[in-house]
């Protein structure tokens, strides 16, 4: 198709561009356009909407050489020393609204981990260096539910979604930390009465199981994804992965009566896999792991189950490796070697991609479809401190969020590795001077609608993410 000139003043110089997208919903016929050098996102979005014949305009973002266009086309060419005589390949994608700070929730101490309950609106679970967990649900009660039982700082926590006894799922969470003991908790949340709209009282959380394996602090506790399919009927019970500074990864079956010991005053009273009748139904039971994964030669930062396959797990750590595990046989399948100390790990909604954050301030994407031992497919830069935490968007396979010791949270699209979509500053205490050291971000989570972060400063910050621009009711199209 011949170049399509765009009407402009005769004296204004023009630049040739070729527009394309990887989003099948917005594909346009291949063509080159001659557009004014002064055009920015707004004018380019108008052009695409005209080609698509959209009744309701949709704002778009634009990528040139993996860099977001935040200036005019002419200014971009000047800043990057790109000749205006060549054809610029420009990729477009639907814009996302900037996240807006929604609330800041105080915590007892530094916050080491946060989790969002996607099935319970407004529910946030956090782990604290004070040795406690906190569960809070906005709109129900201003007083958080506190889990007390750990002797030292809690480093990791997670929700458990499967049932432990085959009946209706109970509300369960797990945690682990500096005291080297993982715990499985049962809790109840207050509910609003329809008559007086006052939150009802709730029963204090209680420990159902302690999990004994690690001889060093437990840095990671993660449950099996509710999306994953059990490989056998016997594996329908919830499973956990724990990982520690001792380099070990524990695989736990939380099914009732499996690998249990009854904790008594005189020590542990062992029971068999078949549950034995006991007069103390409420006794805390200790579990032993169904298997132990060995291979890491240094601290393990994170271990997690595959999103879709319950027989596969991943781990990353300080020994510069990302490892893939076969849980059915308890063996390592593959190891991805790099020069990085990995502090965090996530699997994107595109299951073949693993994401890590490292001490070298970079994020790395590993493509599981490649067999190379050192297969970092893409590196993303932008943080000025170690990347302590990463979290995937629940459904968008190319979007994720990261938190860093530089006190920022960044929202990324893998198609823009040279520049984050947004950078959010962790809220600081009032009266804190600019020269004072900012609070490090230690953990992030994202459920698609909310980004939650915690760290130093004893608080949890919540941002609202409305989705794509133009989706909100009554919103006008606004593009920079």
Account of the 3D structure:
The protein is mainly β and 480 residues long. 4% of the residues lie in helices and 42% in strands. The protein contains 2 helices and 37 strands. The chain has helices at 41-52, 73-79; strands at residues 4-5, 14-20, 32-36, 60-64, 67-68, 88-94, 100-106, 111-116, 123-128, 132-137, 145-148, 154-160, 172-177, 181-186, 206-212, 218-223, 239-244, 249-253, 260-264, 267-270, 285-287, 291-293, 300-305, 312-317, 321-326, 331-337, 342-347, 353-358, 363-367, 376-380, 387-392, 399-404, 408-413, 422-425, 441-446, 450-455, 459-464. It starts with a strand and ends in a 16-residue tail after the last strand.
General shape: elongated
Q: Tell me about the biggest sheet? A: 7 strands, mixed
N/C terminus separation? 30 Å
The DSSP helix count reads: 2
Structural class: mainly beta
Arithmetic mean of pLDDT = 85
Beta percentage is: 35-45%
Radius of gyration: 25 Å
Helical proportion, percent range? under 10%
Number of strands: 37
Q: What strand line-up does the widest sheet have? A: 12-13-14-15-21-19-20
């Amino acid at each position: 198709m011949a170049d399509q000139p765009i009407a402009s003043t005769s004296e204004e110089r023009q630049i040739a561009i070729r527009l394309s997208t990887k989003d099948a919903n917005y594909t346009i016929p291949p063509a080159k356009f001659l557009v004014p050098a002064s055009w920015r996102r707004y004018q380019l979005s108008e052009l695409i909407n005209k080609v698509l014949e959209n009744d309701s305009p949709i704002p778009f973002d634009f990528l040139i050489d993996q860099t977001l266009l935040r200036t005019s086309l002419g200014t971009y060419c000047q800043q990057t020393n790109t000749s205006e005589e060549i054809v610029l390949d420009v990729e477009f994608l639907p814009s996302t609204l900037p996240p807006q700070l929604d609330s800041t929730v105080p915590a007892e101490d530094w916050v080491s981990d946060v989790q969002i309950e996607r099935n319970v609106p407004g529910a946030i679970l956090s782990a604290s260096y004070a040795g406690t967990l906190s569960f809070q649900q906005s709109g129900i009660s201003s007083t958080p539910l506190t889990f007390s039982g750990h002797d030292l700082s809690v480093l990791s926590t997670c929700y458990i979604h499967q049932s432990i006894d085959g009946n209706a799922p109970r509300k369960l969470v797990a945690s682990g930390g500096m005291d080297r003991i993982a715990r499985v908790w049962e809790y109840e949340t207050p509910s609003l009465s329809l008559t007086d709209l006052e939150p009802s009282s709730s029963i204090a959380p209680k420990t159902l199981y302690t999990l004994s394996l690690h001889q060093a602090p437990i840095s990671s506790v993660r449950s099996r994804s509710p999306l994953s399919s059990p490989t056998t009927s016997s594996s329908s019970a919830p499973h956990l992965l724990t990982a520690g500074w001792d380099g070990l990864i524990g695989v736990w079956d939380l099914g009732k009566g499996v690998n249990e010991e009854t904790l008594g005053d005189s020590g542990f009273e062992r029971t068999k896999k078949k549950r034995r009748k006991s007069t103390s139904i409420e006794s805390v039971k200790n579990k032993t792991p169904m298997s132990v994964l060995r291979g890491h030669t240094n601290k393990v930062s994170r271990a997690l189950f595959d999103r879709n396959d319950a027989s596969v797990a991943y781990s990353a750590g300080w020994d510069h490796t990302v490892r893939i595990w076969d849980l059915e046989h308890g063996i390592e399948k593959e190891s991805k070697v790099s020069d990085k100390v990995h502090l965090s790990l996530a699997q994107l909604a595109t299951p073949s991609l693993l994401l890590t954050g490292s001490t070298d301030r970079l994020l790395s994407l590993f493509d599981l479809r490649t067999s190379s031992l050192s297969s970092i497919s893409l590196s993303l830069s932008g943080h000025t401190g170690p990347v302590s935490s990463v979290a995937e968007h629940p459904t968008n396979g190319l979007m994720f969020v990261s938190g860093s010791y530089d006190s920022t949270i960044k929202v990324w699209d893998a198609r823009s590795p040279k520049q984050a979509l947004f950078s959010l500053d962790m809220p600081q205490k009032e009266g804190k001077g600019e020269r004072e050291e900012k609070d490090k971000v230690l953990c992030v989570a994202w459920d698609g609608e909310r980004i939650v972060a915690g760290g130093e400063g004893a608080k949890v910050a919540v941002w609202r993410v409305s989705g794509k621009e133009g989706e909100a009711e009554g919103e006008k199209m606004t593009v920079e």
